[in-house]
Specification:
single chain; mainly alpha; 1 helix; rod-shaped
């Protein structure tokens, strides 16, 4: 087909014009195509976003569980150390109580023996005077 040259301000010949309504139909089809492509792109972005968020959430949960286990272990160790310190302190108090009880018992025996000797002495003194 030969090229038709159209001068500015002139209308192209009728054979060069598209059939009536075809441009509008092409425009509608292109609009539908663009809408479909945009919908597909938005859907892909949404899927990617949700997938990324799910990965982030799972990773955060895994890290949170690991951290919680470490913190729990540290807390258990700290509690065990405190319990051991309490037991050691109780042992020391018990030993100190036993030592003090032994000293008091020995002192009381010593004082009792001293009192008995004094009485015997006083009794002997009283017997001599008689």
């Amino acid at each position: 087909m030969a090229e038709v040259q159209v001068r500015p301000g002139e209308q192209p010949p009728d054979e060069c014009r598209p059939e009536g309504g075809k441009v509008e139909q092409m425009r509608r089809e292109w609009s539908v195509h663009e809408d479909g492509a945009l919908a597909h792109q938005i859907q892909e972005e949404e899927i990617t976003h949700h997938y990324g968020f799910n990965k982030f959430q799972r990773r955060t949960t895994r890290e949170g569980i690991k951290t919680a286990k470490v913190v729990q272990s540290e807390e258990e160790i700290r509690q065990q150390e405190l319990r051991m310190q309490e037991l050691q302190l109780n042992r020391m108090r018990t030993q100190e109580d036993e030592r003090l009880a032994q000293e008091v018992t020995e002192r009381m025996k010593s004082e009792e023996l001293e009192m008995l000797r004094r009485r015997e002495f006083e009794d002997k003194q009283a017997a001599r005077k008689l």
